[in-house]
Amino acid sequence: MIPVRCISCGKPISAFFDEYQLRIAEKEDSKVILDEMGIKRYCCRRMLISHVETWE
Amino acid sequence: MMVLEDLEVNGEEGSKMEIELKEKNENEIVFIIRNAEVPFVNAIRRIAMMEIPKIAIEDVNIVKNDSTMFDEVLAHRLGLTPLFSNLEVIEGLVMSEDCDCDDHCPRCSVSLTLNKTGPENKEDIKVVYSKDLSSTDSKIKPVYDTIPLLKLKKDQDVELEAVAKLGFGKNHAKWIPTTVCSYKQYPKITFNEDLEVDYECAEACPRGILKTDKRSKKIKVNNIENCSMCKSCVRASENDYINVGYEKNNFIFRLETDGSMDPEEVLLKACDVLSEKAEKFITFCKGGKV
Asked: pTM higher than 0.90, yes or no?
């Protein structure tokens, strides 16, 4: 499961995780998605970009 | 050792502190403070992070948890889920230390319950979200509905009661209302006009603040507030044409919250806490009992 908040700054990035995953599945550009969701710091961006969901 | 120069008050005589709003949206506020001191601005920053009461889940009574997630991990995730704690919402709630009840009561806490059963189908996985938390107080609920808390398979249930209490950021990160709360001194970029113009330094700027203007043989500065004072331009310049410094008494303050309260409210409360502390000094100096 994705951490609830960004490990560095504490922004609740997990709230955007489902939308991010859905849009990635639709082959959208990661940069565009993150910019549109207003995640601008690189600490928060890496949380979504680098997350691997292992719980299946 | 404190040097006398450090004690110099506000540069010019009679200059008063001014605040100018730069940017504002739902969760973020950026403003410029002019003619202020580092200790003062830092006091505001530290209080905004550490000493603002906010509500967060503190105790979790787990009745049933069949999922593969450990109880303590689930409790930790619940704790970090931001809950609405506007001043209006938390009004009337007291800190649990100040309450005369044994454990928790409606006067010092809000209880949230989570009751979910797994999917019907064996292959399915059901995600439990923060919106599934039902609160006894309609105003105190998770800020975001889409925070995934745990996953359930067929025949797995979760049943728990979470008790949210007021607390301070200095005790746990879940009670910190801000994500980014920082200030920097106002950047000041100066050019040595006696020397030859060095266009190299403009290209070195990673944020594209410096623009070369070959017609007037100058380097122009765009949006100086975006300057991170990395001094890449100074290093790229072969002569000392460019210099990056800062204005000692002017600050750019940025405050972003996790959504649980408005940024202005955080500032307002921070000022309240600071003046309360100053008030104690006043009573002390007047010989009163603190």
From this structure: no
Task: Tell whether ipTM is more than 0.95.
Answer: no
Q: Count structural domains, chain A.
A: 1
End-to-end alpha carbon distance in chain A: 10
Chain A residues touching chain B at CB-CB below 8 Å: 1-2, 4-6, 9-12, 14-19, 41, 55-56
Question: Residue A26 corresponds to which tokens in the numbers above?
Answer: 């639709």
Burial class, B110, CB count within 10 angstroms (exposed 0-12 / middle 13-18 / buried 19+): buried
Q: In this structure, what CATH number is given to the domain that contains residue A13? A: 1.10.10.60
With 0-12 / 13-18 / 19 or more C-beta atoms within 10 angstroms meaning exposed / middle / buried, residue B146 is middle
Please tell me the distance from the alpha carbon of residue B172 to that of residue B28, in angstroms, as a whole number: 22
Please tell me the predicted confidence (pLDDT) of residue B275: 95
Q: Is B266 on the interface with A (CB under 8 A)?
A: no
**Residues constituting chain A:** 56
